Amino acid sequence: MQDLDLLRYPIGLMPSGLTHSPDELANYIAAIEKFPRKLAALVTDLSDGQLDTPYRPGGWTVRQVVHHLADSHINAYVRTRLALTEDRPTISPYEEAEWAKLPDSALPIAPSLSLLANLHLRWVVCLKTLTDEQLQRTYYHPGNQAVYTLADLLAMYAWHGEHHYQHIIRLAQRNGWIL
After folding, report:
1. Which residues pair with residue 148 across a beta bridge?
2. pLDDT at 134
3. In the predicted model, what is the mean pLDDT of the chain?
4. Digit-coded pLDDT (tens) for 102-140
C-alpha cells in the first residue's frame, strides 16, 4: 500500500468472504460492546483544534469521524432490527460523505459519544441473544447490490469501529498528542 492508502486504511480494507465461527462472532460482539468506551477514552480530552484536524490529507476531521461513527452505527442497528423482523428487507443506503457535511457534524462530540454508548448498549443486548438461525437472516443493500447476513454485519461493524479508531489514534500518535 502507498502512504495515503495506509492513512486511509490503517488496518487494511474490510475483508470479504469471511467465515464466522462461534469464537469469531463472540469476538465481533465483544469489540462492538467495548467500542464506545474505547473511543471515548481516546477522544474525550482532545481540544477543539485537535478534533478539527483531518486524520489524513483530504480526509474527515476527528470530529466528523466521531459523528460519522454514530450515524453509521445507528444505521447498522436499524439494519439488524429490520433483518430480524422482515424477510430479506431492502435497506436504505445513505451518502456518508454528504452526512459528514451536515451542520450537526460541527457540534461537540459529547452527544455522539453518548449516543454511541446508549445505542451499543441496546444493540449488544440484542446481538448476544441471536441464535445461529438469526445470524443467518439477511438484508439486501441496493447500493452494493449484495445480500448480507447478520453475521456479516457483525464482522463489518467490528472492523468499522477499529478502522476509524486507528485513524484517530495514529493521527494522535503522529502529532504527539499521546504517547
Report:
1. 139
2. 98
3. 95
4. 999 999 999 999 999 999 999 999 999 999 999 999 999
Catalogue all structural domains in the chain, each as residue range(s) with its CATH number.
35-174 (1.20.120.450)
Helix axes 62-85, 150-174, angle to 10 degrees: 170
- 3-class secondary-structure state, position 108: coil
The answer to whether residues 135 and 148 touch, using CB atoms and an 8 Å cutoff, is no
Cell numbers of 25, please?
462472532
CA-to-CA dists, residue 165 to 14, 31, 47, 137, angstroms: 14, 12, 17, 28
Task: Name residue, grid cell 445513505.
Answer: 94
Segments of the chain assigned E as strands:
138-141, 146-149
pTM of the shown model = 0.95
Contact assessment for residue 106 and residue 51, using Cβ atoms and an 8 Å cutoff? no
Q: What is the residue type of 161?
A: G
